[in-house]
Specification:
single chain, 106 residues, mainly beta, 6-stranded mixed β-sheet, 3-stranded antiparallel β-sheet, 0% helix
Length: 106
């Protein structure tokens, strides 16, 4: 009997966005790649260097891929930079990746 080990995740998770410029109320799709397969994630949205203001639940498929479309909160003001942190919620040691900055436009 060969029991597979529960080896720690050693992949290279990354995140990309459908746009790097958005206005409050605009939709942005977040793409997560290379995450632990069949895991649950949070997409945490917030202004850069500030607490996250919105959290979206999601999951990663058997290929390590997931996506969600988020809405930039109405609190986002022109000239600010917002980011999305994608973090696993179903693993003891979280895998976290922060997106590139989204420049908020008027």
């Amino acid at each position: 009997l060969n029991i597979p080990s529960s080896a720690a995740y050693s992949g290279s998770a990354r995140v990309s966005l459908s746009t790097l410029r958005a206005s409050a109320g605009e939709k942005v799709t977040v793409y997560a790649y290379g995450f632990p397969v069949n895991s649950y994630v949070d997409y945490r949205v917030g202004e850069e260097d500030e607490p996250y203001s919105v959290v979206y639940d999601g999951s990663i498929d058997s290929e390590g891929y997931g996506s969600v479309t988020i809405t930039i909160p109405s609190a986002a003001d022109e000239g600010e930079y917002w980011v999305i942190l994608v973090t696993t919620t179903s693993h003891t040691e979280a895998v976290e990746v922060t997106s590139q900055r989204i420049t908020i436009e008027d």
